[in-house]
Amino acid sequence: MPTSLKILKKKYSNCKQCPELVKNRSSVVFGSKHMNACKVLIIGEAPGKKEDESEIPFVGRSGEILNGFLKEIGLTREDVFITNTILCRPPGNRNPKVLELKNCKTRLNECIKLVNPEVVITLGNFSTQYLLETKEGITKLRGKIYEKEGYKILPMLHPANLLYNGMSEKLIKQFRSDFKKVKKLI
Ligand code: URA
Asked: In this structure, which residue's CA is closest to atom 6 in ligand 1?
């Protein structure tokens, strides 16, 4: 088990476990730049094009939405650690495959241990189902608080849902109420 996020990043910097992802990626998007343990860990789905180019998670439009909700509860990107269920961009932004999720599992578990969060926000189905070990969909699970090995898990919709749904007021309200719960938990 690596002893710091920096060492963990190095360990996976040239990971070759998923041949299709390795062939298509420009970078391994390990997580936030700052490499500090944080009270809040956010786990998304997979890097997209902009993330692959910049090596930073959530820098595209979903990232802007995420930043906005963090700001509403007085947090910046420096106050949280952000990563994804898998480290590499799936070609054409397809969903991560079961084997890819499995291959990246040890790394994600190591990351959780090193960030040592009080709250883990899982964004969307992939990270939520992985952490809660369930097949239940995110619409049923979101907004509820689950306990696991010393931290709480708070599933939320993926910010991309807001984009697909024309920034629906109803969904914005759901996000606001979920982020307020984070504020209370930390
Ligand atoms: N960007 C990420 O880094 N992860 C996502 O899940 C979506 C966009």
From this structure: 45
Instruction: Please tell me the distance from the alpha carbon of residue 108 to that of residue 86, in angstroms, as a whole number.
Output: 8
pLDDT, tens only, 102-148: 999 999 999 999 999 999 999 999 999 999 999 999 999 999 999 99
Atom of ligand 1 nearest to the CA of 126: 6
Count Cβ atoms within 10 A of the Cβ of residue 1 and give its class: 0-12 exposed, 13-18 middle, 19 or more buried.
Answer: exposed
Ligand 1 pocket test, candidate residues 62, 82, 93, most atoms within 8 A of CB:
62
Number of domains in the chain: 1
30 lines ligand 1 (CB under 6 A): no
Domain region containing 133: 5-185
CATH number of the domain residue 24 falls in = 3.40.470.10
